[in-house]
Design goal:
- The protein has about 110 residues and is of the alpha+beta class.
- The protein is about 25% helix and about 50% strand.
- An eight-stranded antiparallel barrel has the order 1-2-3-4-5-6-7-8.
- A hairpin with a 2-residue loop joins strand 4 and strand 5.
- The radius of gyration is 17 Å and the shape is globular.
């Protein structure tokens, strides 16, 4: 195989990986609701998030930015320490695990 052909294949492979990463991040974007916790989590395309708790009078809980690295959903709340969670996404169900705690959220809006 010629060097040029190898370079083209390498570039093509890198493009597939890059597009896959973008798709993974964008598929998590939306509004999610956890019935077990009474929480609504909004993950915006611009990398910001907002978490509302229906059990709190004003509903506010947490906001800031987030990023996805592999199967890690990493939150950077405003004025707080970074939080890393493992997540799995299947269709319209997002399962987030932090330590021993697991929360299942259903997509309510894209």
């Amino acid at each position: 195989m010629s060097r040029k052909a190898k370079m083209i294949l390498l570039i093509f492979a890198l493009m597939i990986v890059f597009v896959g990463c973008i798709r993974n991040t964008s598929s998590i974007v939306g509004k999610w609701y956890s019935e077990q916790d009474g929480l609504t989590m909004t993950l915006n395309e611009d990398g910001t998030f907002y978490l509302e708790d229906e059990t709190i009078e004003h509903g506010d809980l947490l906001s800031g930015t987030y990023r996805v690295e592999g199967n890690q959903l990493i939150y950077m709340p405003t004025n707080e320490a970074e939080l890393a969670n493992t997540y799995t996404l299947t269709k319209d169900t997002l399962v987030v695990t932090y330590g021993d705690y697991t929360s299942t959220l259903k997509r309510v809006e894209k």
